[in-house]
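pinging the channel bc i need a second pair of eyes. not urgent but kinda urgent?? the chain im working w is below, pasted from the shared doc
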Amino acid sequence: MTVRPIRYLGDPVLRKPAKKVRRIDDSIRRLADDMIESMIAAQGVGLAAPQLGVSLRLVVFGLPGEEPWSLINPVIVRRAGERRLDEGCLSVPGYRAPLTRSMRVTIKGLNLDGKEVRFREEDSVLAQAFEHETDHVNGTLYIDRLDSKDDLVKLSDLAPAAADQSDT
């Protein structure tokens, strides 16, 4: 497993819809392992393949103390409710912004064995990450969803407690 460099805002790979994974083979499994290592090293809770420069519909998730996991060809199949929260991104380091996300999110895709899986989260960081990482594979960044670019706050301008939140 290898920690790969994360691509930042301005890299064109972040703006293109990623390609569907057609075949799950050892190269996809290695990529998923590298993505998990890279996400953990960056202290994130989610990471999409385009953030590592790979234009494939593959995302990984992981909370501290829990086993990280991969999802191939993720699709949000249900959203309900709304909530306002602060969001950041490993590809837009040093900034956060208030954003509206869904209260409940159901996502589906394939696991590394090629079996369809579904996950439902409500009012959690994973619910937020499901939408955030699915946006990434669709070529969208969270800053595209802001009411105003003026909402972006540089982390150095925040109090230490407010700046110490995980990014997706």
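so The domain at 12-159 is CATH 3.90.45.10 (Peptide Deformylase). and DSSP finds three helices and eight strands in the chain. — does that match what u expected or am i reading it wrong
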